[in-house]
Design a protein that fits this description.
Its EC number is 4.1.99.3. This protein has 480 residues and is mainly alpha-helical. The chain has three domains: 125 residues, HUPs (Rossmann fold); 118 residues, Serine Threonine Protein Phosphatase 5, Tetratricopeptide repeat (Alpha Horseshoe); 174 residues, Orthogonal Bundle (DNA Cyclobutane Dipyrimidine Photolyase, subunit A, domain 3). It is built from 20 helices and five strands. α10 crosses α15 and α14 packs antiparallel against α15.
Amino acid sequence: MSHALVWFRRDLRLSDNPALQAALDAGHVPVPVYIHAPDEEAPWAPGAASRAWLRRSLQALDADLRARGSRLVIRRGDSLSEIEKLIAETRAEALHWNRLYEPASIARDTRIKQGLKSRGLVVESHNAALLAEPWTVQTGQGAPYRVFTPFWKNVRPRLSVLPVPAAPARLPAPPVDLLSFDADDLGLAPPANEPRWDEGFWAHWQPGEAGAAELLDAFLEGAAHGYKEQRNYPDRIATSKLSPHLHFGEVSPRAVVSAVLARDWPAAVKPDIEHFLSELGWREFSHHLLFHFPHTAQDNLNPRFEDFDWADPDPRLLEAWRRGRTGVPIVDAGMRELWATGWMHNRVRMVVASFLTKNLRCHWRHGADWFWDTLVDADLANNTQGWQWTAGTGADAAPYFRIFSPVAQAEKFDPAGKYVRRWVPELAKLPDSALSAPWEHADLLARLAPAYPRRPVVDLRASREAALAAYSGPKTRPPA
């Protein structure tokens, strides 16, 4: 039988995998391939937390393939060179992959497709990652969207219950003599002579397609009910936590939408379902923005902020923020949750981002870089859009209304202090009334939490006023 290479990247699943299905439909023996070439994604090669997840996800994919009679062939080096070697070794007649949408990946994939097609090879790419690819959504004037609400009004009617192909029960075996590395050979885990900083992650996560399916089922049975309101409370299991699985393609957004829409929800739950779908819409919108405005991974979407008066970064303040030692409990709790689990609740992400970009007035790139290295769901589109949204430099920006008060946010969304006490245990003995702003209760803080900072690294009120003054400049400039 003829062979086809199926190039896995961030589509690490067997169900609803268009590239794999296309190879099978054409009558080929699929040769599943992963090529480790992080330098080709520069300057956004995967961060440390993403690498740790990737290692386990590759192992899970290989196990799933072997259970069906196949295996994952792992290579490392230049992608085109390794593909050419595999074509020669297998006499493959076709190459299939699922599309990526980051600027570096688009350029690389375009070059590979053009080069191999010119030699007569069948090369096809497919959509496995988005509900609506960026070039399929336009304004009435044929332009890309810059505001979420009209974008979502365009995309939402397209969603429906679609058949989601199951994983093949059996797969033909690729040639047995193909060289393959083990996932452990790729240097994805922390070095043996360094602390295993990721060890705590795996009590919270199960990388791979099975882990994604379990989370989706748990969400539909539980947190989907009341999602619209409950998702704002970080001390509760009230979100899907599917973001890393979606990023690595262990579940498709189409499968998630179909599973949601296929259920007969009570009328009281339907607003929750619509809100969840709109959150998937924000993921789509982020990819839409990055595709049409690729410079935004490094630069502001809104040109009014080109000369914005960012503060000179103070290494001491940046380190306090990164390590959860700012003296502001909700901020410190979020940063410690991130370090311990590789993830942070979305409400708290906005609070810690606002604190960095507004109260410390550090450029949003400092935060984006740290999240990129520490989040297991570090996605260039989502990370960029999220940070620019909070900083006020991106789409849907209203900076004057987005200086989050960390005290008010803690009082509203962690009123009993469960979240703060979990991640900042030195504050556990403080009464609820002192937990959101412990510096206002100096005697209690000194007596019950002597290891915690006596006061925030910046004055919250003064830094807010300074941010408002700084943002008044871009507000008055004419739009570009």
